[in-house]
Amino acid sequence: MRRREPGAGDAPPVNSRRTLQAGLWVAFYHGGQALVAIGVLIALARILDPHDFAVAAVAFSVVSLFTPIAEGFFNDVILQRRGLGVGDLSSAWLGSIALGAVLWLALWALSHPIAAVVGLPEVADLLPWMAITLLIGGCMGVPAAFARRRGRYKALAAFVVPGRLLGAAVGIGAALHGFGAWSVVAQHLASTACYTVLVLAGARLRLRPRLFATARLRELTRFSLASLTDILILPAYSRLATPLVSALLGPAATAYWNIALRIVEMLYGMVYSAAAHLTLPILARRQHDKAAIRSGFMACTGVASLMVLPVFAGMAVTAPELVLVLLGASWLPAAPLVTIFSLTAILLFIRQFVIVAITALGRPGHSTRISAQGLGLGLAGLAAGASFGLPVAAAASALRALPLYVPGAALLRRTSGMGALDQLRPVARPLLATVLMALLVLALRHALVAAGWSAPAVLAACVAAGAITYALAVALLARAPLALLLGSAGFGRHRIAPASAEGASSR
Fold first, then answer.
1. Do 74 and 92 meet the contact criterion of CB atoms below 8 Å apart?
2. In this structure, are residues 118 and 243 in contact, taking their beta carbons and an 8 Å threshold?
3. DSSP letter (8 states) at residue 207
4. Where are the alpha helices (DSSP H) in 119-235?
5. What secondary structure letter does DSSP report for 13?
6. Is the separation of the CB atoms in 244 and 384 below 8 Å?
7. 3-state helix/strand/coil string of 373-386
8. Cα atoms in the Cβ-side hemisphere of radius 13 Å centred on 71
């Protein structure tokens, strides 16, 4: 008879209150990572010269491309399969460690060819050491997935921040002592090792290697292979774009591209991951009620747009001052890229809930196809625009948003009954308020720059004016999503209604 770990069986039933609490902790989990990562990125950009920064960025991007496989290969099977025994978890754990080791050795063997392709010989020295994190991450993936299965997001959030802070201290200290690109390797190793130790110690999972069984591992692997495409595709764009820029445009362009893309992408990922985690279970429990799916999609899209769009619009119109204040004058060529990537983030965010809704409706294969189309178009646009310069390449890479608007809209119409205009309607008023704010901030910025104000003063004035203008515009133009936002926060009667227990059990 298969032995079961106490507490390793079926996940606890989901309820609305727990979903909302989990969403808050997921926001803290991703937000803590993103804020520390952005802080470290800014500090290292101020210390390292652009060439060292480009070398480290390419090595990090290559390793990060395989990190989701090493850390998350068995995530779906652990999160979704009922009745997992301790033997299953122990087999998956040892299999995950072996997979991390294989990926580490593969990157070690391929380090010189990769360095030759990207045109940075120093990458060959960094890759074998940075890729050790794949082995370390393999030790952590299964316990972390088990903690998510048990809904222990608060504990995961408490684990990740100390790891990131330790990595930040190590990386910045190494950079200050002149270790150049190697400081990023030290940061990545320290951060991953600390987080892994904390997860292993605090996941409340007793793993027993002696219960390893090849048959169990084979069965779990077959299930996990079905989700491998999602693991590879969803985070792939930013991790493939940086090496591609290095190969096409050289190290200086790579440094500017990477710093701009990572600042925007980390902020975007933080917001979207928290929003998707909160809304996916709410929509999934309504998947047999198309009317409820439509209302949930429109409410979530409207509220999220209300909160997120002004942030990226503000970054787009104040990019020069933002770069000067955060990074310094030497990074000013990255400012146009910050503007372009911020506008691309708006295009993506307006439609990203299409992916969430399609997945909630039980069509994950369709959402994967849309993501793959976006990845291909983004990289193709980047490659085609590279010969015209870095800003054109960045603008052309925005083609990755196109599948969300065309095939994505058609697919959501077929699965939920929402027409294309209905899908865009909840965004219209927040977007109009955002445009009005952006135009006023842009005019104010030009006036202040012409008057000779310093970059910090211009940025502070624009942030204050933008916040006031946006608040007034929302009060006049977007009262419905504002009422939903305030109601969901407990300040009003209107709120995004969570799925009922009956709806959860009717699946």
1. yes
2. yes
3. -
4. 123-130, 132-149, 153-176, 182-202, 214-225, 228-233
5. P
6. no
7. HHHHHHHHHHHHHH
8. 19
Residue 301 CB partners (closer than 8 Å, separation 6+): 350, 353, 423, 426, 427
C-alpha triplet 372, 378, 382: angle, nearest 5°: 150
CA-based nearest residue to 141, from 215, 62, 221, 67:
67
For tokens 């955060």, the residue is 326
Long-range contacts of 442-450 (CB under 8 A, 24+ apart): 442/317, 445/317, 445/318, 445/321
- pTM for this entry: 0.82
Answer yes or no: are the C-beta atoms of 264 and 345 closer than 8 Å: yes
Query: What tokens appear for 136 in the block?
Result: 């370390």
Phi, psi (deg, nearest 5) at residue 498: -75, 160
Greatest Cα pair distance in the chain: 79
CA angle at 90 for the pair 87 and 91, rounded to the nearest 5°: 85
Closest CA to 478 of 347, 310, 294, 314: 310
Q: What are the structure tokens assigned to 207, written together?
A: 């793993």
Residue owning tokens 């990019």: 319
Nearest to 235 by CA among 183, 272, 284: 272
Report the residue count for the chain: 507
> Can you spell out the DSSP letters for 412-479?
HHHHH---HHHHHHHHHHHHHHHHHHHHHHHHHHHHHHHTT--HHHHHHHHHHHHHHHHHHHHHHH-H
Q: Identify the burial level of 396 via C-beta atoms within 10 angstroms of its C-beta, where 0-12 means exposed, 13-18 middle and 19 or more buried.
A: buried
- Tokens matching residue 267: 């902020």
Tokens of 131: 């890729």
The tokens describing 27, both together, are 């926001």
pLDDT in tens, the chain (507 residues): 444 444 444 444 444 445 445 555 565 666 667 778 888 889 999 999 999 999 999 999 999 999 988 888 887 778 767 777 888 888 888 999 999 999 999 999 999 999 999 999 999 999 999 999 999 999 988 888 888 777 676 667 677 778 888 999 999 999 999 999 999 999 999 999 998 888 888 777 777 777 778 888 888 888 777 667 767 787 788 889 999 999 999 999 999 999 999 899 888 877 766 665 555 555 555 556 667 677 777 777 777 788 889 999 999 999 999 999 999 999 999 999 999 999 999 999 888 778 777 766 666 567 778 888 999 999 999 999 999 999 999 999 999 999 989 888 888 888 777 888 888 888 888 899 999 999 999 999 999 999 999 999 999 999 999 999 999 988 887 666 555 454 444 444 455 454 443 333 333
